[in-house]
Give the backbone structure.
Amino acid sequence: MFLIAIVLLTICFLPVLPRSVRLLPSDEVPASNWMSHLPLEVTRRPLSQIAIPGTHNAGSYSIQESSPTAPDLKFGLLISFLGYFFNIRLSDWSVTQRADFMTQLQCGIRYFDMRIAMRTPGCVASTSNSSLEVQSCFYLVHGLYAKRVDEELQVINSFLKTHPKEVVIVDFQHFYDFNASLKLAFKDFIKDTFRDRLEPYRNQIPTLSDLWSRGKQVIVMGYEKKPKEHEDGDSVLWPRSSIRQPWPDTRSPDNLGTFLSNEYT
């Protein structure tokens, strides 16, 4: 199994977000299109051999004190009952990013970690309808509800239209309150959103050059493991087993640096 190694960056409390990056000692390029400036040799490597900056719970920037509790939160009903004060504390804990999606993209982020849940109770009954009707039910969550998934994915789409050589990996790590019909509706929604930019699952991790030649810019992950029905080039979502995400479980930047060095060298 091929593994994609992702460098997750928490940019929540950085005073200044980077607008340029130095790929080589003498070569500083805009962070918004750093992939298009990579050396030819690097663009021919599998994505698993490129360090790709990403954000943890990328959509949590939009969580507010008034946001309702989400299904991923333990004891959420109890906390909701206890009132507004607890929501203030929860919003402090839930927000891991302060930059919106467009800012993250312009600053070079190319991997988006997301968790989604249903927010409207009537959505389950409406799954026989078109994905356009269902997509308003999908919300990003991290303890509390953030923005709608379709709104955030359209931001990514808008960015990619003007940056044709940038590639984004969208990783839906968890689905809350999803049944089988909702998962099918979600796959249709992903296809409708990214259309020709979407790279279908393949048994081999692509290179940037591969993706550019096919006009593909988005890889979406969503399966917990490789389903039996997966066939090369035939599936919308990539299995999450395609990605390797070791968890350091530390708040220390020094310990994190040591951990990553040990894992990836």
Summary: The chain has one domain: 4-57+98-114+147-264.
